[in-house]
Amino acid sequence: MSQNGARSLSRLFLIALMTVLAACSSLRLAYNNGDTLLYWWLDGYVDLTSDQKGWVQTEIDKLFSWHRKTQLNDYVHILQTGQKQLAGNPTIADLQADYDDIKDRTQKLLLKAAPELAELARSLQPDQIANLEKKFASNTEEFRKKNMKGDREAQQKFRYKKSMEQFELWFGRFSSEQEAQIRKASDARPLDNEIWLNERKRRQNAILALVRKVQQEKLSKEATIPLINALIKESFNRLDNSEHKQFFEASEQGSLQLIMTVIKLATPEQKAHAQKRMQGWINDFRSLMAEAR
Fold it and tell me: What CA dihedral angle connects 279, 270, 1 and 43, to 10 degrees?
């Protein structure tokens, strides 16, 4: 997705997972290695100590076991809903409902992990928090270089190309006529990367403030969990209470309209391509569930 659509969607676990796995030849292989990938991701942010590595890996394994046993069937239902919508005439309201459903499921996942996140926050040392701050700064600079390079036209073009990468994974190649209409719908979305950059920094600072508070006040696990839960919930509700609420709402609606444009433009062959990919994932998720029994 574009950075605006991606802000609304790919920051959620399921969409992030699916966006990554869409490029993989084997969803089952990628999912089965997801615990290792998550461990590497955490290690890359804080540089886990030898004492932390063992129990962090154990807790990640438990989270994935829970996820495999309790959540994959929901993903099957989401994909089946997508198949039905693609075969019919979905509305913006349908896409909004899909987004809200995924958002709720993702918040549930993060809240499930809150006790483990609390333990990690309590175990962080000053140098690890410094590593986290540096990683955040690096990510922010990368966002700036990629998304804010050049003038408005250059930024719109970059956003459009990122969207097309995802649409082509699902639908295959588009004709030049289709691409022109998709580009028009892409450019119709509000564009203000400075707002997105500042929102990114705000979220990062909130995380840093939390882990510093936990360390400085030597908070217990029981005292830390509510702080983690509040931060998770605030992250999901933040854009509804932001001074830029109108911009965020317009961006979300613009992204949904872009997706709707692609669906309406898709040929029967392109829709069949997407249906086949969805069915492949459904089959893989069912196999993963069977392995967990």
Answer: 40
Q: Which residues contact 211 (CB under 8 A, 6 or more apart)?
A: 121, 124, 129, 132
- How many Cα neighbours within 13 Å face the side chain of 107? 15
Q: Read off the tokens for 102.
A: 């995924």
pTM here? 0.85
Asked if residue 82 lies in contact with residue 279, where contact means CB atoms within 8 angstroms, the answer is: no
Helices (H), 71-175: 72-87, 92-112, 114-123, 126-147, 152-171
| pLDDT tens digits along 39-48 | 888 899 999 9
Q: With contact defined as beta carbons under 8 Å apart, do 283 and 39 qualify?
A: no
Dist CA 116 CA 122 (whole Å): 10
Residue 187: which residues within 8 A CB-CB, separation 6 or more? 156, 160
Say how many CA atoms lie within 13 Å of 202 toward its Cβ. 13
The first and second tokens of residue 173, run together, are 């190649």
162-180 tens-digit pLDDT: 999 989 989 999 999 999 9
**Integer Cα distance of 224 and 241 in angstroms:** 24
